[in-house]
Amino acid sequence: MFASLTKYGQAFLIGLQSNLVYRVNFGIRGFFSFFHLIVVFILWSAVYGSQGQVAGFSFAQTFTYFVALIVVQFMIGAFNEDYQISEEIRNGLINQFLLKPVNYFAYRFSIYLSARLVTGLLILVPLVVLYPLLHQHLALSFDAWRYAAVVPALMMSALIQFGIAYIFGMLSFWFLEIQGFVILSMALESLLGGQIFPLDLLPRTFFDISAGLPYFYQMYFPVALLTGRISDPALIVPMLQIQLFWVVIILLTGRFLWHRGLRLHTAVGG
Amino acid sequence: MGISHYIRIWLTSARYSIVRTLMFRGDFFIWSMVELFWMTVNVLMVSVIYDHTQSLAGWTKYEMMLLVGTSMLIQRFLMGFFWSSIFEMGRNIRTGNFDFFLAQPGNVMFMATTRKIDADSLANSIVALALVIYSAAQLHLHPGPLDLAIYAVLVVCGVVIHYSVLVLCIAAAFWVTSAQGIEGSYFTLSEFSRLPREAFRGIAYGVANLVFVWALPMVVVSNVPASALIHGLDWRLALWVVGMAIAWFGLATWVFHRGLRRYSSASS
To answer: A36 and B49 in contact by Cβ < 8 A?
Structure first.
């Protein structure tokens, strides 16, 4: 147990170093995400127009939702893990792991954690800088139960985020080019994860359908919890259970694809 | 070298791109789906928003759909005719593969930005056009041939403006070597093109209006052709768009050629 902690701790530290190299790139990306907030602000100001509430939420609540979405994205979102995994499979870099007592999933997950530590801290910079401009449009809820539920929800969302990226990376065993799949799934994730609009604006039936899908728990669920869009404490436990169910399914699928993929894999060169 | 020379070069590149597309049919299918899906996402957003409101900055649902359709049409043309070439240009400048274009018989900017055509984007421009036509039908619009010609000219001006802004973004690679992430700035800007011009009024004391509607052309580019169809042509706005197209294209050409002087072949 301790040995494996040290082993993957090292992977984490290496990941930390290599991600710190790209701190400026991540910083620029963070800055542009806030540029996106201008679009959100203008669009939703126009939607609210003269009405005080849309679907029971004030403008400040909706705007807070979009701000939280960006922050959570930088803290747990999978950025390009799928490409990195795909590259390692295609270039044969995974061969080294096949000969060593290293679990490839755990290794990649350690690196993902280190990358999110870097981006998660970096996104706080524009947030703090812009806070004086933003704070009058923010509405946060401070219920204790909310924060108690957000922590496990965020951890499981991180596993879903990484797990889906891992699954797409695994597709490289079968397909030469996964970019198309990745962007197609990105569109699906943005829509069903609530990044285009808060899912609670959907008609009831569609909302209920979306609440059964993994994308709901990948982004919308923790953010809606954090920003008060999910207001019934009785819903939390069943939703956390569905989230856990998807975590298990996704991790098992990733594991299955890894073992199936290795059967096809040919390690060329040395 | 006359225009016919460039048309011949372009047709040759186009033929090459189509043959390539036919070779990778699966790829064509997946990328067409990707774009179609992203367009659907945008249409769904409009649809969901109008479940909760009657009008957005004075625009009704189908007026907004027509705006989004126009914005998509311009973007599909940009993607179809120029995106791959311009995107690769950034990488080629870094790796030194850009040398290849310097040795070709024609204007470097033309050769480097028109080499590849994306058939999937062009296929989806038909979907965008269908959205425009469907919205126009829902609004009971009956544009005459002149209105359609004006709409087409404005859309072409829009493509020229987007092209110029994209070239400007990527030409940064001549100075900063790695333009990675800079193309992202173009996408952020293009998000503005789906917003109605009227929504900017009064936000941040009108500064937003000045910056995003007038200084950066993305909003006007999609709004003017869409309004021309819906409300009839506003000559002053149309002339502004044509003027902007000329100005931005001039700026892009100038910056590109300044950058070209700095190009020192492979870096590392």
So the answer is: no
For residue B190, the model assigns a pLDDT of 82
Nearest to A195 by CA among A19, A37, A51: A37
List chain A domain ranges.
2-264
pLDDT in tens, A176-224: 888 888 888 888 899 999 999 999 999 999 999 999 999 999 999 999 9
Q: pLDDT confidence of B181, banded at 50, 70, 90?
A: low
Distances (CA, A) of B11 to B100, B115, B126: 19, 10, 21
Chosen for mutation from B46, B52, B55 (greatest number of chain A CBs closer than 10 Å) is B52
- The ipTM assigned to this model is 0.85
Question: A238 pLDDT exceeds 90?
Answer: yes
Q: Could you tell me where the DSSP H helices lie in chain A?
A: 2-21, 23-48, 59-76, 81-90, 95-98, 104-122, 124-134, 144-170, 179-192, 204-210, 214-215, 221-226, 233-264
Residue A225 near residue A236, CB atoms below 8 Å = yes
Angle between helix axes A144-170 and A81-90 (nearest 10 degrees) is: 30
Looking at chain B, list the stretches that DSSP marks H as alpha helix, in order from N- to C-terminal side: 3-23, 25-49, 61-78, 84-95, 99-102, 108-113, 119-138, 145-171, 173-176, 182-191, 207-208, 218-231, 235-262
Question: What is the distance between the alpha carbons of residues A199 and A225, in angstroms, rounded to a whole number?
Answer: 13
pLDDT confidence bin for B44, thresholds 50/70/90: very high
pLDDT of residue A69: 94
What tokens does B219 get? 């909003």
Give me the phi and psi of B96, to 5 degrees please: 95, -5
Q: Which of A23, A28, A33, A38 to mutate to test the interface with B (most CBs of B within 10 A)?
A: A38
- CA–CA separation, A78 and A168 (whole Å): 11
Helix (H, G, I), strand (E, B) or coil at A9: helix
Confidence of residue A63 (pLDDT cuts 50, 70, 90): very high
Whether chain B has a CB inside 8 Å of the CB on A35: the answer is yes
Question: Domain residue spans in chain B?
Answer: 3-262
Give residue B166's Cα distance to chain centre. Answer: 8
pLDDT value of residue B268: 46
B24, HSE (Cβ side, Cα atoms, 13 Å): 16
Q: At what angle do helices A124-134 and A59-76 cross, to 10 degrees?
A: 170
Of the ranges A100-109, B179-188, B203-212, which one carries the lowest mean pLDDT score?
Answer: B179-188
Q: Do B37 and A202 touch (CB under 8 A)?
A: no
Which SS3 state, helix, strand or coil, does residue A22 take?
coil
Tokens 């002087």 label which residue? B261
pLDDT (mean) for B241-251:
95
pLDDT top residue among B251 and A35: B251
Inter-chain touch A177–B27, beta carbons under 8 Å: yes
Contact (Cβ atoms closer than 8 angstroms) between residue B197 and residue B138 = no
Between chains, do A49 and B200 touch, taking CB under 8 Å as contact? Answer: no
pLDDT at B2: 84
